[in-house]
Structures are given as structure tokens and as C-alpha cells.
Design a protein that fits this description.
With about 80 residues, this protein is α+β, with helices and mostly antiparallel strands. A hairpin with a 5-residue loop joins strand 3 and strand 4.
Length: about 80
């Protein structure tokens, strides 16, 4: 590898606040926020909206997130495109 052109590869905690789930892994991503981990060290933390702990495919639970009638808007647009009324 060419020195000096690659981002730092370090330990980072990814946290899914909606599921109360976090995991430690290595990544080139970084953050200004930090969190104490179970091993006593402090690592950068990245908050994610969805992970395997909260995704409906992995959990078997369906979560309906319908903001401002998106589903209805999609159905109406799809019906118009197919020529339905």
C-alpha cells in the first residue's frame, strides 16, 4: 500500500438507539462523539437509524413509518401510471 493516502482504520462503535443495540467494529468512519465501551476504552460512536436489531427483515416485526401519507401518495401515483382511477 502507498503510505499517506489511506484513511485511518480504527475501532468504532455503531449504535442503533431505536433498538438499544451497539457493536464494536473497525472502520474508516469517525465521529467527534465518543462512548465508553465494556472493555473500559473510549471509542468514537456513530449513531445509525437502522441495524440488524431493528430492521424488519431480521426481526420479523413490521414497523410502519408513514410520514405525511407517503404510502397513499405512492399508491395514487402508481394507480395513475397504470391508468386506474
Amino acid at each position: 500500500m502507498k503510505p499517506g493516502i489511506h484513511p485511518a482504520y480504527q475501532y468504532v462503535v455503531y449504535r442503533d438507539r431505536s433498538a438499544g443495540f451497539a457493536f464494536l467494529t473497525r472502520s474508516t468512519a469517525t465521529s467527534d462523539k465518543t462512548v465508553g465501551w465494556t472493555d473500559g476504552n473510549t471509542y468514537p460512536v456513530l449513531d445509525v437509524e437502522i441495524s440488524a436489531a431493528s430492521h424488519p427483515f431480521w426481526t420479523g416485526r413490521q414497523r410502519l413509518l408513514d410520514t405525511a401519507g407517503r404510502v397513499e401518495k405512492f399508491r395514487a401515483r402508481y394507480a395513475r401510471a397504470r391508468g386506474e382511477s
